[in-house]
């Protein structure tokens, strides 16, 4: 802690000297890097947004480490310190309780809750509606946090993030707006690819390891059957497993989807019972360790996986 503090003071002093020697451009905030806006992102898709829109005017720290599943993220003391020191905290209220707590204690008006831009859908959206089905009733009152899996909703969040960055750093406001527009164009292209790529398919049911794909299903008229609920660390009950197997057979599912950051065991068990294959459908809650992809490339991989599994032409 002492070393780190010393380093930060030195870094800040060096940067100030550099500034004083330079043309005297103004710096807002007093983060670790006075020339850039210190942004803390709660998990990968928000890091992607902040980096694309912030460009070289921001320094983004992701609280969730690569390869780690972010739902049950716990914060160590230095991460709580990062939340306290950040000039902007980008998070999704209701997704990660530890982040919600840190923001409630230290976030103040520096926190940007993406659900303030995109109100969350009910947990059942885009999914099978099974009245009284065990495992669904439990979460029927819940909200689905996986809003980033609809590219158009992510673009809307990006526009608002550009506004917030522009307020924190007015000198670069026009840059933030321009980069958000460029990102929106990329996300619109992606959305078009999904719309056309999934327009004509033999099946529309997707059996997924956790119910992360409600927004994707809602946007592209798919029908999600989640093996577990909204959270990946809840074991499905035997009744739920039996029900998913029945659904998969009824809809002649050829593929049971699992995720990069969660064990494929349950998906493999169901696939074995149904005579289906397994494939990765990535909810992009985090990048796999060592991945050189980004949100756009992983979404395109997801699209190809869906086209194959659902028999789309
Ligand atoms: Zn999830």
Automatic annotation (TrEMBL):
Protein name: Metal ABC transporter substrate-binding protein
Organism (species): Micromonospora parva
Alphabetized UniProt keyword annotations: Signal, Transport
Signal peptide span: 1-32
PROSITE patterns in the cross-refs: PROKAR_LIPOPROTEIN
The UniProt record lists the keyword rRNA-binding: no
Residue ranges of the region described as Disordered: 122-146
Gene3D superfamilies on file: Nitrogenase molybdenum iron protein domain (3.40.50.1980)
Protein family: Belongs to the bacterial solute-binding protein 9 family.
Pfam families recorded: ZnuA
Biased composition (Basic and acidic residues): 127-146
